[in-house]
Design brief:
It is a single chain. By secondary structure, the chain is mainly beta. It folds into two domains: about 290 residues, 5 Propeller (Tachylectin-2, Chain A); about 160 residues, Trefoil (Acidic Fibroblast Growth Factor, subunit A) (Trefoil). Helix content is about 0%, strand content about 40%. The protein has two helices and 34 strands. The strands form eight sheets. Strands 22, 25, 26, 27, 30, 31 and 34 form a seven-stranded antiparallel beta sheet that branches. A five-stranded mixed beta sheet has the order 1-5-4-3-2, with no helix packed on it. The protein is elongated, with a radius of gyration of 25 Å. It starts with 13 loop residues before the first helix and ends with a strand.
Length: about 475
């Protein structure tokens, strides 16, 4: 977090401008959220000023998390069966002369109602004296999955972003470890590791000015944890480089403070705050969105928005549809020198009213088929607010557009469409964007089963439910506007 003293001009690609990223529901009001951690079936994140948010499901968030010490921009990480919290003891900026100190502390649980809830004494791990080119706030932690070593980055726009090594057993700074400068002109940094690369994510722009904040999240990468961190056009983050990861979306202003959560192979989420949600009094709010990896770079993904879609199998490009004999449109082959003198006029698309009377009134099986833009292939997808959610997502209903006919899971692990949507858990669907940009579709529950199954394309014509496999394109779907 920093005080407003720099104006940053942001260039945003047209791809990013088209994306809509949703804040969470409940009372998700927080600034500078830590990486989200799970503890005993609940999710926790901590913010500037002490305290934080708790969620039962990862979608609806409310206050209640407890963190002593006040200060700014904490981070949290689970190591073994304990939780390590790091935070800046000051608020940073010119008001305190850029003198800062970063502390770590442990707890056996994050549940403030647990008898085991007690924070350890704080441990100082980094300092800034107000004169050096660094401001010791905004810590971010990474436990390197390739080495088991624990790293902490810190710093603001005032000077350098630095990285130091901590002992994962004690939370103390490794004896004799010297800080290394790895970036400038950014803040709220954190490291993450993927496929042999270390990624440094940080904020550009100004914070703490509500709807006028220009925060955005950028990234560079390196083969070494100590850098140099280079962006996609070859510019070092020590020269102000950084590839765009997330920027303002419509009425959600100024994303900052990246956190990464790996759910399973192919499903990842990124958390952050928006400086201002204009639909919630301009308050700073928590957001969780899919994390997509494109050509080796992270980018904020997107939740499916309410709309009408062709649901397309990645395997062949065939589409999910009702298992019906489609109704032919009028007219035969045109062209080949015939009827060339006829006036040119549009052919109306086939409408639902043209065909629905020919459909059975009971259950209709689902099928995979060639897409030809017919009513039995167009799906109305919309979130169901009253159904709650799960980590970083909400549940959707999937209906044939213009009807109440709903896609549903069956007790024998198949999929059908039922005549009317009832809100049953077999008719609620998780739709998660995958790290490659496609989507996974899963029923909230399969009747009489505890298994988590995904919609898959079995062969070329049959949709069914089965175990999700990120390496198998049968498990992946695209949503396209018809």
């Amino acid at each position: 977090m920093k005080h407003i003293n720099i104006v940053c001009i942001i260039s945003i690609t047209s791809f990013l401008l088209q994306m809509q990223l949703n804040a969470q529901v409940g009372k998700p009001f927080i600034h500078d959220p830590s990486t989200i951690v799970e503890c005993e079936g609940k999710y926790y994140t901590f913010g500037t000023g002490g305290g934080g948010l708790i969620s039962e499901d990862g979608w609806t968030w409310n206050g209640g998390a407890v963190r002593p010490g006040g200060g700014a921009a904490p981070d949290a990480i689970k190591i073994g069966n304990r939780y390590l919290i790091a935070y800046g003891a000051t608020g940073g900026g010119a008001a305190v002369g850029h003198r800062g100190k970063i502390y770590t502390m442990w707890n056996n649980t994050l549940d403030p109602n647990s008898p085991d809830f007690k924070y350890s004494d704080t441990i100082a791990v980094a300092y800034s004296d107000g004169y050096e080119d660094c401001d010791a706030i905004d810590p971010g932690m990474m436990l390197d999955p390739s080495t088991g070593r624990l790293w902490l980055t810190y710093g603001t726009y005032y000077g350098f972003i630095r990285v130091v090594e901590l002992d994962p057993k004690t939370g103390k700074r490794v004896v004799g470890n010297k800080s290394v400068d790895i970036a400038i002109v950014c803040e709220a940094s954190i490291l993450t590791y993927r496929d042999g690369w270390y990624y440094l994510l940080a904020n550009h722009g100004t914070c703490c000015d509500g709807a006028n904040s220009t925060y955005n999240i950028v990234v560079g990468r390196s083969k070494k944890v100590t850098g140099p961190y280079i962006d996609n056009v070859g510019r070092s983050m020590l020269e102000g480089g950084g590839k765009m990861v997330a920027a303002t979306r419509g009425r959600l202003i100024g994303p900052g403070h990246f956190g990464r959560n790996i759910i399973t192979d192919g499903v990842e989420k990124m958390s952050f705050h928006y400086e201002a949600d204009l639909d919630q009094s301009g308050r700073s709010v928590l957001a969780i969105v899919p994390l997509v990896w494109k050509d080796g770079w992270p980018v904020a993904g997107e939740h499916i928005q309410a709309g009408t879609y062709e649901i397309e199998s990645v395997r062949r490009g065939y589409s999910l549809e009702l298992a019906l004999d489609f109704t032919r449109m009028a007219g035969g082959m045109r062209g080949f020198g015939r009827n060339n003198d006829e006036p040119i006029k549009p052919v109306p698309s086939q409408a639902l009213a043209d065909v629905i009377q020919t459909w059975p009134t009971g259950d209709i099986n689902a099928r995979i088929g060639d897409y030809i833009s017919r009513p039995h292939q167009k799906w109305a997808v919309s979130p169901v607010a009253e159904a709650g959610g799960y980590f970083g997502g909400q549940y959707y209903k999937i209906l044939i557009d213009g009807t109440e006919r709903a896609l549903a899971a069956t007790a024998d692990g198949e999929v059908i469409t039922v005549p009317a949507y009832t809100g049953d858990v077999s008719q609620l669907w998780k739709i998660d964007q995958l790290t490659d940009g496609s989507y996974r579709i899963m029923p909230k529950e399969v009747p009489n089963s505890k298994e988590e199954l995904a919609l898959i394309s079995f062969g070329d014509t049959r949709p069914t439910l089965g175990k999700f496999d990120m390496k198998n394109d049968n498990c992946k779907w695209n949503f396209r506007m018809p």
